[in-house]
Amino acid sequence: MARASRMMQLSDLVRETLILLGEDPAREGLAKTPQRTAKSLLELTSGYAVDIDKLINEAHFEVPYSEMVLVRDIDFYSLCEHHLLPFFGKCHVAYIPDGKVIGLSKIPRLVDAFSRRLQVQERLTSQIAEVILQKIKPLGVAVVMEARHLCMEMRGPQSKNAPTVTSAMLGVFRSDARTREEFLGFINGAKH
């Protein structure tokens, strides 16, 4: 479906939602809200249109390097698939190459592509790790994500300042405690 058509349909749905909430979508403050919300939703879910294979396949290189590569403190923003409320935080991604590396800028782009889909943090963490494992076949991949969930802070338990931490440890990060501890030391040391 063309973007313009999706934008118009989403705008109509937002207008209907405002009416169902007891609002007047024609009042001054809300007159452009349906269009703004539609545009925002399309941007926040633009990850569905990203071709992950194309994103990765054009940026891996043969390099005789076998030590840890870590990109830490990658900001991410996503929408919880259960309530369509934001969750956001930091992502840390590491891998140990086995003769092949990925362009460093591709790691934050990969995080962004998967974040811009309706998500749960657990799946998001695994997807990032699994794609890197599949595409460059490193000795191991580690991903840790720490996020605040507005579905927990604004509704339900209203639990403030209780970040959720998820991890995916594959290959040597799972089987070798020293490698895992080195990674965790790097990311935990960054917080102090």
Structural features, described:
The protein has 192 residues and is α+β, with helices and mostly antiparallel strands. The protein has helices at 3-20, 33-44, 52-57, 106-115, 121-136, 150-153, 172-175, 177-189; strands at residues 60-62, 69-80, 86-96, 100-102, 118-119, 140-149, 164-171. It has a five-stranded mixed β-sheet with strand order 5-2-3-6-7, sandwiched between helices. Strands 1-4 form a two-stranded antiparallel ribbon. The longest helix is centred in the N-terminal third of the chain and has 18 residues, at 3-20. The termini are far apart.
What's the number of extended β-strand segments? 7
Radius of gyration: 20 Å
Structural class: alpha+beta
* Residue windows where pLDDT falls under 50 for at least 5 positions: none
The averaged pLDDT comes out at 93
Note the run of SSEs as H and E: HHHEEEEHEHEHEHH
Distance between the termini: 48 Å
> What percentage of amino acids are in beta strands?
25-35%
- The coarse silhouette is elongated
Approximately how much helix is present in the residues? Answer: 40-55%
Annotation field: number of helices: 8
The largest beta-sheet arranges its strands as 5-2-3-6-7
